[in-house]
Design goal:
12 helices; 43% helix; five-stranded mixed sheet; Arc Repressor Mutant, subunit A; D-Maltodextrin-Binding Protein, domain 2; alpha/beta; 21% strand
């Protein structure tokens, strides 16, 4: 175990190591981006802390005492190991794919159809998608970012609006034909709904529909619910962002849409600096909202 209290100031050790390498206070000051006087003062403080001289002036430069040579060799080895470790870590981080947590249905229905554009712009950046219906800890799971559904008020993270999650009612053309059924007609139709989804139930009640009295099949998995809706097995309540391609390609038709601004989809990140690859993906992602 390292006895941290016995180790002199890292600033002083750094100043001495640079001086020992360059044999000159002024050159050491330039590489450390400090003044000549600051380097000389740190070296003197280190000598006082150790109780022995480490350098001696020689013209415009310095030479090392025997103790200075011994310490310089140890510091060169130690700081070299630190530098190699940091460079290895940075290289690993640079090569690591951008890790994104999001729901499976958002990945499949919203993100995947757009990713070709990202990879055309950034073929050098890898992505690692982690579909999960649960909210995960970005720090513990080493996620670069998440895409979450809600009001955007989660503690401990930075949030930015991505895209609307306004709810719509949709059905397959085989179920509804080419017209929009009235609320009274919808009350008599088959439905594909989720249990324990408060926003869905509130939306239906605002239209005058009682979720518990509808002819319903409960499917909590959104991907399966959409697959059933495409087969004409019932009307479905879903976020518009997740059925854009279905509507555009004619698999589903919207029969009613909500005008609520929240909840929505938000990009969430941890406070602090972001990796270059993550910054590039975030910039592209925000342009897609």
């Amino acid at each position: 175990m390292i006895d941290w209290r016995s180790i002199p100031s890292l600033t002083a050790l750094r100043a001495f190591a640079a001086t020992a390498e360059l044999r000159n206070f002024s050159q050491a000051a330039r590489v450390l981006n400090v003044t000549h006087a600051a380097v000389a003062q740190q070296v003197r403080a280190l000598e006082e802390a150790l109780g022995r001289p480490l350098v001696q002036r020689e013209g415009r430069g310095v030479s090392l005492t025997a103790d200075g040579e011994q310490l310089a060799a140890a510091l060169a080895e130690g700081f070299g190991a630190i530098q190699r470790g940091i460079e290895t870590m940075k290289a690993g981080e640079a090569d690591r794919p951008v890790r994104i947590t999001l729901t499976a249905v958002f990945a499949a229905q919203w993100l995947m159809p757009r990713l070709r554009d990202f990879w055309q712009r950034h073929p050098e950046i890898g992505l690692s998608l982690h579909p999960d219906s649960k909210v995960v800890d970005l720090h513990r799971e080493r996620m670069d970012l998440g895409i979450r559904y809600g009001n955007g008020d989660w503690p401990g993270v930075e949030t930015e609006y991505l895209t609307s999650a306004r709810l719509v009612i949709a059905g397959a053309p085989s179920l509804i034909g080419d017209r929009n059924p009235s609320v009274a007609e919808m009350a008599k139709m088959d439905w594909i709904l989720s249990r324990n989804w408060a926003e869905q139930d509130a939306y239906l009640r605002q239209l005058g529909l009682d979720p518990e009295r509808l002819e319903r099949t409960d499917i909590s998995n959104e991907e399966l619910a959409l697959a059933a809706a495409r087969q004409g097995l019932g009307l479905v309540v879903e976020g518009m962002a997740l059925i854009e391609s279905d509507v555009a390609e004619g698999r589903l038709r919207i029969v009613h849409e909500s005008h609520q601004k929240l909840p929505a989809y938000f990009v969430v990140t941890l406070p602090g600096p972001k990796r270059a690859a993550a910054r590039a993906f975030l910039k592209w992602l925000k342009s897609q909202g």
